[in-house]
Amino acid sequence: MSTIDWLVMTGTLAAIVIYGVMKTRSVNNVKSYLMGDRDLKWWTIGLSVMATQASAITFLSTPGQAYESGLGFAQFYFGLPVAMVILCVFVLPIYYRLQVYTAYEYLESRFDVRVRTMTALLFLMQRGLAAGITIYAPAIILSSILGWSLGLTIFLIGIVVIFYTVMGGTKAVSVTQKQQMIVILLGMVAAGFVVVNRLPEGVGLSDALNVAGSLGKLEVIDFKFDLNDRYNIWSAMLGGTFLFLSYFGTDQSQVQRYLSGKSLTESRLGLLFNGIFKVPMQFLVLFVGIMVFVFFLFATPPVHFNTANLEKVRNSEYATELTALEEEYNQLSSATSEASTALVEALRSNDEVQSDEAKLALADAVFNRNQIAGEVDALIKSVDVEAITEDRDYVFITFIINYLPIGLVGLLLAVIFSAAMSSTSSELNALATTTLVDIYRRSLVKEKSDEHYLKASKMLTIMWGCVALSFAAVANLFDNLIQAVNIIGSLFYGVILGVFVVAFFFKKIGSKSVLSGALIAETFVVLTFIATYLEMFELAYLWLNLIGCVLTVVLAWFFSSGSKAVKRAMGSGAS
Amino acid sequence: MSDPNEFNPNDETPPVLGSWRRIYAVVLVLHVVLIILFYLFSNAYA
């Protein structure tokens, strides 16, 4: 990486952190530290909510997702605007009326302290582990590409985030996220322009779209109803709305962002801003991935994008086979480039027969190239059985490092580090707030001074930062880490959402019923997972979210109805 | 009679369009328009 790129990257990141620290120097009481003086405007809230959701892996993975599977992933976010409207109508007014610090605080006013504590603990377990992954996942890719040590990359991301989150609390998180999101959007737009400009001379945006469309990469909407298909419009509108309701409505890392708004109006506008711009933003990121795909039809991509995997093979007995496969791959890439040029010319000529033939020839060339890539994957597995051969997360970073001009490489790396830091800071802030407000101040150490709780908040932020760093540092001990954390999340998320659904929509159900329902549902979810782990039957872990939520609601309703029936029977018996 | 201190979410009027109901409708209509545009885009390059 050039000196200019180093300067751009470190300069951008340092400027954001210094700005965040300077803007939050006046934070000197616990309310200000946890709620940011409740003075944020809607655009800061909107950008902050977007930045919290968009982790670094989003910007590394999403273009790779488009490179591999096209634009269909955009559908995943179709339920989000609907969820934003539902939250603005039903949930935000309740949080504002009660002036809560955390989502779980509301549960005490609705039920009792036991329900609040149980839900807060479920959140802490789930989010505490996820914070480690938010640092680890981009660190492993960045360290591999930049040639840094993994430990150093994790330490650098973690220590900077802990520093400014401890210094300025919620306000520092939101203020820095606004700047980080601006850098992220500028960087992605710049990357989009560059990749189109780097297409061969005479091949424009329209040609690139025609070529990508010919290979089926531009199908955004899929109307086919299929329960096994993760991305179609039905699963997005039904399942996606449900998922985003639970994430934005009950996850403190998001709730804290909009609760620090100046007023209910500002918070509502912030969420609706997210509802309007999130889908186009994801489309932009995917679109950049599509352009990278077209670029690599004309230019020769690496046979495998994860260089660390290739190095393993180069240093093994299979090195000669790899060299032979790479040579064959390069020849096939030349054929792919020629077929792509032929397709562009055929499409321009408006000759249907010629166009169809050129499309088939290109599809054939791409297929042959992918076959060789598959053989290289097999070689990697021969060297290391546990190696992950899926390399789509490395596609965009490879393009950034090798094909972007000097200066822009630094900016795009700042984008990825910014995304990692913005998500992690929200998580640490939310973990510290929930631990302080729902556990420490509520049940353990009551009636202390404001100064005591401010100090405790900072110590808890450091503590959760250390937990996240420790987990990130040993994360490589787990086989499939991201899946492991998703499974842990699925074990708790459904039950948390179920408790909130009862709280908001079943006003006659009391604390005893919801607590019993939640505990039984959680036990059932864990036992179901153990049964699937022991291969007693098959069930995708994402279903655990739905099972946990529905079971909690049904059981709470059942216990509530049962206790009322008993009371009625006793009442009529007595009369 | 309602409590004068009671929080009423409708007290906070949005800065544009006059009511929250209209703002929500705009967000949802924009979303539908976006989905239709995506559909047309997919068809145009299919």
TrEMBL record, chain A:
Going by the entry's taxonomy, the superkingdom of the source organism is recorded as Bacteria
> How is this protein situated with respect to the membrane?
Multi-pass membrane protein
One GO process term, biological-process aspect: sodium ion transport
State the Pfam families in the record.
Answer: SSF (PF00474)
List, alphabetically, the InterPro entries matched: Na/Glc_symporter_sf (IPR038377), Na/solute_symporter (IPR001734), Sodium:Solute_Symporter_SSF (IPR051163)
Q: Which UniProt keywords apply?
A: Cell membrane, Ion transport, Membrane, Sodium, Sodium transport, Transmembrane, Transmembrane helix, Transport
Kindly report the protein's main subcellular placement as a broad class. membrane
What are the protein's GO molecular function terms? Answer: symporter activity
Query: Could you tell me where this protein is found in the cell?
Result: Cell membrane
Indicate the transmembrane segments per the record: 6-22, 42-62, 74-96, 117-139, 145-169, 181-199, 231-250, 271-299, 394-417, 459-478, 484-506, 513-534, 540-560
Entry's CDD domains? SLC5sbd_NIS-like_u2 (cd11494)
- Membrane as a keyword of this entry, yes or no, is yes
Spell out the PANTHER family in the cross-references: LD47995P-RELATED, SODIUM-COUPLED MONOCARBOXYLATE TRANSPORTER
Write out the similarity annotation.
Belongs to the sodium:solute symporter (SSF) (TC 2.A.21) family.
Q: What is this protein called?
A: Sodium:solute symporter
